[in-house]
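Lab meeting tomorrow. Please check the following:
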Amino acid sequence: MSTPNLVAASTVGGVHDWFSWVVIFSNALAGLWALAAHRRPPLRSRVLWLTTAAAQVTVFVQAGLGSWLMVVQDRDAPDLHALYGFSALVAVGIAYSYRQQLRDHLYLLYGCTGLFLMGLGIRAVILDSVA
């Protein structure tokens, strides 16, 4: 691997490590806010949905960064690390696909999804730190 590729991979690796916390905290915030909004209607706003969408986009960015690292550095992710990352992508898709059927429980759906994504992120970080 050439020097510029090593520098890019090192930089992307650092961003991937740092950005994992953005994924965890943004989804925790969105999930807790959605659960609170289920109980307290004044908390329901367009900003909640923008926050939820932004938090879920972070999952796709993180998975993209991780995939790029695996391809460019030709290395394997720690055991189950990639599984948790791709499971997060699937969870976002499932939540989105059920939004019409669960319209009456939409805040619960997205609240639990946000916390589930947070948990997957925490687990992925723990797996990465012990590997």
Remarks:
- The two ends are 23 Å apart (CA to CA).
- The chain has a mean pLDDT of 91.
